[in-house]
Amino acid sequence: MLKMKLFISEEIKAGAMLNSQKLRHNFEQVVQKVKQAQVIFSLFQKGMGRLKFDQILNFTTREVQQFFSQMPLIKSELKRFANEENTVILQADSATRAKQITQNLVDYGVDLPIVKSDQILIKKLK
């Protein structure tokens, strides 16, 4: 209950709630009733307190590389990642920027379609 009071006080301070506003649900009870699967990322492969994991998966990641408009290098890296069967996601902050990136890649012989986040394509590099 203390967490809820702290949450409400922070929301009032931020102007997201009125002081006299009442919540309809007790969120702690709602969260306890949720039966959806949870994904927890950790730097270490060990338990976290009393949490019991159903499965542990190892994710290999790399630091984001900056290419500074070196298109031939981008092309070779994309092909290398595709040959290693890695998933590569190029993100843009707007549809206009995504079209510009796509056109630049097409100019260098890399044909990648623009898709939404729920339409990620597997093994589609040409």
Through-space gap between termini = 55 Å
Largest sheet: none
How large is the radius of gyration? 22 Å
Strand content: under 5%
Structural class: mainly alpha
> Would you report the number of β strands?
0
- Helical content band: 25-40%
Mean pLDDT: 79
Notes on the structure:
This protein is an all-alpha fold. 37% of the residues lie in helices and 0% in strands. It is extended and about 60 Å long.
Annotate the secondary structure layout:
Layout: H1 2-14, H2 27-33, H3 71-83, H4 95-107
Features:
single chain; 126 residues; mainly alpha; 4 helices; 0% strand
Brief summary:
The chain has about 130 residues and is mainly alpha-helical. The chain contains four helices and no strands.
